Amino acid sequence: DSGVTQTPKHLITATGQRVTLRCSPRSGDLSVYWYQQSLDQGLQFLIQYYNGEERAKGNILERFSAQQFPDLHSELNLSSLELGDSALYFCASSVATGGYNEQFFGPGTRLTVL
Amino acid sequence: KNEVEQSPQNLTAQEGEFITINCSYSVGISALHWLQQHPGGGIVSLFMLSSGKKKHGRLIATINIQEKHSSLHITASHPRDSAVYICAVLSWDTGNQFYFGTGTSLTVIP
Predict the structure, then answer these.
(1) pLDDT digit of tens for each residue in chain A (114 aa)?
(2) Going by fewer Cβ within 10 Å, which terminus of chain B is more open, N or C?
(3) Is A56 an interface residue toward B (CB < 8 Å)?
């Protein structure tokens, strides 16, 4: 158990809908990262927050948005869902920002868009 | 164009064999991570490297910054090592983005 929690574990929804994925980092970790893993694209970095502020942005679509709240939990919002958004979404946390810190991964949320 | 290339894509080994997985990258990096993804999907960070070599149990990771290359070695492989191993780099070239290799699927046969 990494100490990072993600909810829900599974999510099934329809095209055009909007969903929210939630991540609670390990106690004491200030950085949260979001990743998408699909069968054809592998793991992709979406976005990173550090202590409530956006720190780095990867291949995140405009239909997707994220935020980190004062209690440090983070939410990833996916809207106007398409079939291709079906993937595993991982959240990870680390103590600080930058790539020098070990990241601890949550168990992931499996999103299926029908 | 892939910023991170891994080889081999698939690897089958007999228990006890010495295993090497390679990772090459084309961007300037701050750090390189080796991750292990279990068949159930969970991801564990194995190593974070910015230079030299690190060892943890039967796992050894090395990085050559000049050659833009890293290797993950597993000594005395065991069936429980069967997993996908993923190389990831944090690039300062492109605003601190993470790039991932496609992974090496390792199967260790008893």
Answers:
(1) 889 999 999 999 999 999 999 999 999 999 999 999 998 888 999 999 999 999 989 989 999 999 999 999 999 999 999 999 999 999 999 997 766 788 999 999 999 999
(2) N
(3) yes
Q: Do A99 and B44 lie within an 8 Å CB cutoff?
A: no
* Distance separating alpha carbons of residues B32 and B43, to the nearest angstrom: 16
Nearest chain B alpha carbon to A2 = B44
B34 touching chain A per CB within 8 A? no
